[in-house]
Design goal:
Blueprint (H helix, E strand, L loop, with lengths): L1 H22 L2 H8 L5 H26 L6 H25 L11 H5 L3 E5 L2 E3 L2 E4 L6 E6 L5 E5 L4 E5 L4 E5 L5 E6 L11 E6 L24
Parallel strand pairs: 1-4, 3-9
Antiparallel strand pairs: 1-2, 4-7, 5-6, 8-9
Length: 222
């Protein structure tokens, strides 16, 4: 009886552990799943979700029967696990959507995109300018250990860039000035703020190099 009980503990513990593996960093996994062109991160995300799906179904099969699983149960675990993995992936992409905006830009526009680095609790550059005829689009790089966001509350924009990733994003903005900040944790309070200016006239450069100074007492981030 004790052995039977112990045999039931393992699958019960496995199921939440498998689910937690996927949903511990859902934004990161969703980000990689939507970008098959980044082969290694995409493959890692697929393997992670597939392993979680197979583990969930295998644990359920073990929970519902006694003894070691036979070939039939193994096939059920593999096939059912693949289906569950697809469901997990779909859930991630619906609940934590991470759109890829590169398709809306031409090759020339992609090559000319200004880069915004997210590091040291700041955007670099922090003052962004976009002129008439130019897409309001940026390439964000995040080489820190934490996720960051490019948030413009006035426009309802909240673009998350997971740790170690690069993201291209297009913002729908009319001419005007917009306050920008990082909405992750207390990053805004630590000085991760900036400003986006969209002008009526053309510019010779899409950004200026001036950045908001890092506040005293801020620590290196990443």
């Amino acid at each position: 009886m004790l052995l039977w009980r112990r045999s039931r503990i393992a699958p019960v513990a496995t199921m939440p552990a498998a689910a937690l593996t996927v949903f511990f960093h859902p934004t990161d996994v969703a980000f990689d799943l939507i970008r098959p062109g980044d082969v290694l991160p995409f493959a890692n995300a697929v393997a992670l979700v597939l392993a979680a799906g197979v583990a969930l179904v295998s644990a359920l099969v073990m929970l519902l029967r006694r003894g070691r699983p036979g070939n039939g149960e193994r096939l059920v675990s593999l096939g059912g696990g693949t289906a569950v993995a697809a469901l997990l992936a779909a859930t991630l992409l619906v609940v934590w959507p991470q759109s890829d905006d590169t398709g809306s830009l031409t090759d020339a526009q992609l090559a000319a995109l200004p880069t915004v680095d997210m590091t040291n609790f700041k955007f670099s550059p922090a003052q962004l300018r976009v002129g008439q005829g130019q897409p309001v689009a940026f390439k964000f790089t995040n080489d820190t250990d934490d996720n960051h966001t490019f948030t413009i509350e006035d426009l309802g924009v909240d673009i998350e860039v997971p740790s170690g990733r690069t993201r291209i994003a297009v913002v729908d903005a009319k001419p005007g000035q917009y306050a920008v900040h990082c909405a992750a944790g207390d990053h805004k309070e630590k000085g991760m703020i900036g400003r986006l200016t969209v002008t009526d006239g053309a510019l010779t450069s899409t950004t200026t190099a001036s950045a908001v100074s890092e506040p005293a007492g801020a620590h290196h981030h990443g």
